[in-house]
C-alpha cells in the first residue's frame, strides 16, 4: 500500500510523534535530552516554526508544531538527522535511530490545540514516570506554569484561557489537572486518510489549500466503499457476507478487503460486516495483491475518488 504524502501548507498545525527504531531507547541520559532540545531550538529559529508543546520520553518524542512557511518534512528531517549523527557518534553506533517514518497528524488547531497540549504534558503521568506533570523535567509543562518563552510559544495557547497572563497560567494548570487519572485519548489518533485530525469541514478546507491534490483526503465510509465495490464488481454486500464461494464473489471479497486496507482501515473493523474472522480476512488481504484483484481494487478506488470529488 502506497504511503500517503505529507500535507503541507502555510499555517499547518501538526502533532508529531517520533519513535526509536524497533521501539529502542533514543535517550540514555540527560545530556541526550539536552542535545535533542538544542536541535529543536536551533531549527525553530532557522526554519521559523512555532512550537506549542513537547515531551521527551525514553523511546519517543511528541512535538506540537505549526509551520508558517517551512514544510514539516524539512523540519523533522533536520532535527532527526542531526540528532542521529550526535547519538551514533556518542555511542559508537551506525544506521537508523528512529523508526521509519515519523507520524505527523495534521490537526484542526482551533479544535484540538488545548487538548493536545494537555495530552502531551500528561504522557509522563500515564507512563508512571511521575505522579504530577510538573515533576517531569523533560516536557514544556513547566514552561506553561512559569510563562517561559525560551523554546515554547506558551502565550499563543495561554491566551485561550485569559489575556491576563497570571490568570491564564492558573486556568491552564487547572485544565491539565482535570485530566489526571484519565487514560490515553484514542480520539487524538483517529485521523483521516492523510492523518488529519478534524471534522469533514476542516478536511475540505485543507483540500482547498493544497495545489495539485489528485485524491480526496477524506476517507470514504463503509457504505460508500460497499457501494463502489458493487458498482465495479456487480456483487452486493449480501453476497459478500454469504457463504457463496464462486469466483466472482470471492474476487469481490478480496477487492473489498484490498480497498479497506488501501484506505488505512483496520481489518478487525471489517469482521462484523463480512461475517468472517480476522484470520480469513488476512488470507483475503493476501489475495488482494494478485494482479487481477489489484486492478479491480484500483478501479474501485478510482470510482470512489471521482465520487468524493463530485
Could you explain the architecture of this structure?
By secondary structure, the protein is an alpha+beta fold. The protein folds into 2 domains: 12-209, Alpha-Beta Plaits, CATH 3.30.70; 222-309, Chromosomal Replication Initiator Protein Dnaa, Chain: A (Orthogonal Bundle), CATH 1.10.1750.10. 50% of the residues lie in helices and 10% in strands. It contains 14 helices and 5 strands. Strands 2-3-1-4-5 form a 5-stranded mixed sheet. A hairpin with a 3-residue loop joins strand 2 and strand 3. Helix 1 packs antiparallel against helix 2 (72-91), helix 9 packs across helix 14 and helix 11 crosses helix 13 (278-287). The longest helix is centred in the first third of the chain and has 20 residues, at 72-91.
Q: Would you spell out the secondary-structure blueprint of this structure?
A:
Layout: E1 12-19, H1 30-47, E2 50-56, E3 60-67, H2 72-91, E4 103-107, H3 109-121, H4 123-126, H5 141-146, H6 154-158, H7 165-177, E5 196-197, H8 200-209, H9 222-233, H10 237-241, H11 247-262, H12 271-274, H13 278-287, H14 291-309
Q: Summarize this, please?
A:
Helices cover 50% and strands 10% of the residues. It has 310 residues and is an alpha+beta fold. The chain has two domains: 12-209, 2-Layer Sandwich (Alpha-Beta Plaits); 222-309, DnaA protein, C-terminal DNA-binding domain (Chromosomal Replication Initiator Protein Dnaa, Chain: A).
Amino acid at each position: 500500500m502506497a504511503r500517503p504524502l505529507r500535507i503541507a501548507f502555510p499555517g499547518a498545525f501538526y502533532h508529531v510523534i517520533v519513535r526509536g527504531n524497533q521501539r529502542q531507547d533514543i535517550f540514555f541520559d540527560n545530556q541526550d535530552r539536552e542535545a535533542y532540545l538544542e536541535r529543536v531550538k536551533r531549527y525553530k529559529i532557522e526554519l521559523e516554526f512555532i512550537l506549542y508543546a513537547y515531551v521527551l520520553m525514553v523511546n519517543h518524542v511528541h512535538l506540537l508544531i505549526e509551520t508558517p512557511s517551512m514544510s514539516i518534512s524539512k523540519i523533522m528531517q533536520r532535527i532527526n538527522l542531526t540528532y542521529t549523527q550526535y547519538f551514533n557518534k556518542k555511542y559508537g553506533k551506525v544506521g537508523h535511530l528512529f523508526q521509519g517514518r515519523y507520524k505527523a497528524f495534521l490537526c484542526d488547531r482551533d479544535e484540538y490545540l488545548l487538548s493536545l497540549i494537555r495530552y502531551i504534558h500528561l504522557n509522563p503521568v500515564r507512563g508512571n514516570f511521575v505522579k504530577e506533570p510538573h515533576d517531569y523535567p523533560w516536557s514544556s509543562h513547566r514552561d506553561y506554569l512559569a510563562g517561559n518563552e525560551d523554546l515554547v510559544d506558551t502565550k499563543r495557547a495561554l491566551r485561550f484561557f485569559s489575556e491576563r497572563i497570571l490568570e491564564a497560567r492558573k486556568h491552564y494548570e487547572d485544565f491539565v489537572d482535570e485530566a489526571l487519572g484519565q487514560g490515553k485519548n484514542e480520539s487524538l489518533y483517529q485521523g483521516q486518510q492523510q492523518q488529519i485530525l478534524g471534522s469533514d469541514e476542516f478536511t475540505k478546507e485543507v483540500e482547498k489549500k493544497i495545489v495539485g491534490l489528485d485524491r480526496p483526503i477524506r476517507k470514504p465510509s463503509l457504505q460508500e466503499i460497499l457501494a463502489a465495490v458493487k458498482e465495479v464488481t456487480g456483487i452486493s454486500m449480501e453476497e459478500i457476507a454469504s457463504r457463496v464461494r464462486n469466483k466472482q464473489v470471492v474476487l469481490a471479497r478480496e477487492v473489498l478487503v484490498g480497498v479497506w486496507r488501501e484506505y488505512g482501515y483496520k481489518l478487525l473493523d471489517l469482521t462484523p460486516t463480512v461475517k468472517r474472522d480476522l484470520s480469513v480476512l488476512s488470507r483475503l488481504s493476501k489475495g488482494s495483491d494478485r494482479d487481477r484483484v489489484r486492478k479491480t481494487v484500483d478501479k474501485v478506488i478510482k470510482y470512489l475518488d471521482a465520487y468524493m470529488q463530485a
